[in-house]
Amino acid sequence: MISSSTFFASLYTALITPLLAQLQAMIGTVISTMAPIAAVMTVIAVAVSGAEVAFGQKTFSRFKRDVAIAAIVVVLATSAYYTKYISDLFLTGIPNTLGNALGATTNPASSLDRVLNTVVKATFEDYHQLPWGLMSIPLGIGLIVILAVTVTCLLFSFGVYMTATIINVVVVLIGPVFLILGITPITRRFTAGWFSVLVGGCITQVLALGVIQLMTTAELTMIQGFITVAAPAAGGDNSIVILWGLTESAMLLGLTAAAVKQVPAISRAIGHGVYHSSAGLQAATFGAARQIAGGAASGAARGVGAVASGVARIGGQSGNDQPWRGKAPVGRSLSRGDR
Please, are residues 164 and 208 in contact by the beta-carbon 8 Å criterion? Predict the structure, then answer.
């Protein structure tokens, strides 16, 4: 009797538990180290933005927006809020919630163990049913190859999931460094890039878990199906039926590994899509408002100039005399906050 294995579940627990514990121990040190830097950057950013408002290079509404963003970043960079809204949310909250919705248990690697146990059990049952003789040699080799392919595909899927989890832990650990860069407009793009990586890692976990859950459920259904078909052949030789069924299950696991392999690329595309969408939203709101305001001001200036030119012609003034000539636009903001 083959006992059920918890290889992947135990390995996941053995790897992720010390990582999360070490993260919690180190994240407080990183945040406390970056706190004075964040305070200095906030003072400098507010002072520069205030000077730009005073010299007419930035509107007061944009100054208020920069101050609000700096305040939000400073609050999120504190230990309690960073742990709640960044660390716990992206490392356990979103993956566990969506994992439970996809049918996973508290341990996302348990579904891999179910497939492994089912395939191993079916392989050993088929091995014991092989007839004695030369025919059993290639069939036995085929069973070994199928079992090796199964274990390889499962290890690959597990590796992709664990790699995404570990990278996400590292990204969260160094997050305070990039988070405080969002205080100043000129370095805010680095915060957006860090957030894109964080979202991409979380999406990789969720998508990999979704593919694993979907394909392993189909795998278990397939195995149970060919075992049920082979069961009525009691007293006969059904080893070929089981061998063919195991071959089909190995092919499905190969497709699972191929699908999981594409998950990081899909996650990067989605993560960059979130980043570019944020940039597009920025252009569609503040950028559009700036263009509309600039267009309205330019149109008003041209209208006033036309009226002044008409009055000058009626009054017999020289065509070169333009008392209402529009002024050149102001220069670019030093902190790039007007972009």
Answer: yes
CA–CA distance from 65 to each of 78, 112, 160 (Å)?
Answer: 21, 48, 40
Give one DSSP letter per residue of 161-217, joined into a string: HHHHHHHHHHHHHTHHHHHGGGGSGGGHHHHHHHHHHHHHHHHHHHHHHHHHHHHHH
Yes or no: say if 28 and 79 are a contact pair by the CB < 8 Å rule: yes
Q: What is the pLDDT of residues 16-65, one digit of tens each?
A: 888 888 888 899 899 999 999 999 999 998 999 889 888 888 888 888 98
Whose CA is closest to 206, among 83, 89, 102, 85? 102
Write the DSSP assignment of 84-125 as a string of letters.
Answer: IIIIHIIIIIHHHHHHHHTT--SSTTHHHHHHHHHHHHHHHH
Q: Which two tokens stand for residue 205?
A: 């976990």
Burial letters 217-236, b for 16+ CB under 10 A, else e: eebbebbeebbeebeeeeee
Helix 239-282 and helix 110-129, axial crossing angle in degrees, nearest 10: 160
**CA 326/CA 318 separation, integer angstroms:** 18
- CB-facing half-sphere around the CA of 84: CA atoms within 13 A: 6
Mind listing the pLDDT tens digit for each residue in 72-83?
A: 999 999 988 999
